[in-house]
Model the fold of this input.
Amino acid sequence: MENMIILQVILSGITAGLVYGLISIGLSLIWGIMDMVNFAHADFMMLSMYFTYIAWSKFALDPMYSLPLIMILMFVIGVVVYLAIVRKTVGGEIVTQILATFGIVVFLQNMAQFLWSANYQMIRNPIVSGSFALGDLFLQKAQVVSGIASLMAAGLIWIFIHKTKLGWALQATAQNRGAAPLIGINVNKMFSIAWGIGLASVAVAGVLLANYYYIFPQVGATFQLLALIAVALGGFGSIPGALLAGLTVGIIEALSGFFIEPAYKYVVVFSLYIVVVLIRPQGLFGTHH
Amino acid sequence: MLRRFFICLLSVLVILSIMVGVNSVFAEVKEIKVGVVIPLSGNLATTGNLLKQSMELAIEVVNNKYENLNVPMAETEGFPNFDGAKLKMIFLDDQSNPEKSMGSVDQLISQEKVCAVMGSISSTVTATASQAAERLGVPFLSHTSSSPGLTERGFKWFFRCCPDDDLFTKNFFQFMEDAKKEKSIELGKTIAMLYENTLWGSDVAKAIRKYAPQFDYKIIADLPYTSRSASLTSEIQRLKAANADIVMLASYVSDAILIQTTMKDMNYIPPIMLAMDSGHNDPNFIKTVGDLANYIVSREVFTSTLLGDPTVAEINEMIIEKTGFPLVQVTAQGFMGVLVLADALSRAESLEPEAIRIALVETDIPQEKVIFPWPGIKFNEKGQVSTGRGIMVQILDQKYKPIWPFEIANVEPILPIPGWDER
Done:
């Protein structure tokens, strides 16, 4: 029985970790290509959670159906945010970039509170809900679906970046944004695509999270911190690294919460992060710049 | 001649200046300013906004005549002792942030010149906010924070008009003993505690540790957690593994929502869940999780059966109109809290802090003017309301129904809680 409980804890950690990984992928992509930290990443996730809620409450659209629509919408928002705000900070001081995305955080949270109030919202009885038994183990359907989706998203983004021309152009821009225009690459277009894909991938996380998590204007805060840890742990810009680091964070969080003390679970996660940063500053899967 | 003229002129000026001076000393007080620090954004914004709305309703009662309401300050318009001055409350958002609350209290007292301060919700925030008021020597009235430690600090200016968790925790055990004796409900003797790890949750845990041995119960799991965690799965795993007869909870609303949905997904429910109010009594809790909330037992200071009283029924209608929710603990406390302070202000000889403090110390609101089932409102020497009482409610059909004390209960408790697949 004791073994089954531990196995259950690990399984829960894996499913939670895959969601952290999914959130981190988009952040890592923007970071890797633009060398820029998007502090508003999880707040865009919050935005996609609200879109999911609105689609469900106003148009009776289950999150699984609204998912593609919200992905497209968030892609467009990503491009617009890049062109309207972020573009002006590219090449500037790092502090300017931090403050710009931090300004977006403040704007998004306050806009959400203004438009949708500070009240908690939750999607009731979505298609993907409840749990299923695997012998003595219980798995939450919504978390399993999110986990599968995060694996798929990571795979698709990896294929896009490594196997398509546009992906190569993105890589080329990331490697040398000064030389990229010399071979006909439009840097602004590449960056706006990076923002679009980054936000579309966090939209997947937001929509699937809305299946089982409450929604309120500050919901992104905790996830932002975990996503930043996962990106730094996995290696800046590494998509598989972000996914695996997210997974690691989830498993460590679950195990330390179970074996040590729930109140200290993030202490263990953050301690691991500090250790990795000290021993391997480029992250587990990153390369030296 | 010229000398006489100057003496006359000087006399006139002196008399005029004295008149102006006297006039300013006895100038008509048009409004009495009270500061309020509560969370209007952030994690507790939903509870904070409800609290604010109920307080605004009480301000209307203080400033206008409501002869049909039998509560303090309803019979007069404003404060008769200050020539009918109106009550004005200045609300500042503390974002549930202790540092922010301290700065807000400083601002209210030094810039807005408020004569008293009320707030907040989270006990941790109330602790720091009231420290600022204590340092500046201005009365501070807490109306929702229930951590017992708040009134154990030996503060001169701190008052609390709601019961503390020590009393409520004792009520938990009294309820279980009464349920066993009078209703033959056997719930077992092992307890698992799951509580958020700031001042409030930790104080609740301390009170449970104090009373459990006294009532012959055994704590087999003691689980503090960080509020607003991204996941509470491992916490629920621990609860499930402990398999205690009784689960006692102290959670804010976001965690209460996550606990309930995670328990459902993990197909786990203990025989009884005893919640220390807060998140589990926030109207948004039931609104968000729906029927998953059913069968939880929580402590309260207010219950719907009190709506039989015409005054409470009238206030309930007013609250529904203002907030969209019927009167619950948080709105009842918000409403009554303002009236307790207004009552003291109406008896204060001046708006000097000491005069208001003395008026608060001398508070003696009779039973019939209190919307809670208490024998009136009085403070003890620590500034803690000494007349408060707790009620146990159970969520049945997504409504809070009183189940204890049995004399005010209108339904029978349904315990042990049915399993998820038995509902």
Observations:
- The radius of gyration of chain B is 24 Å.
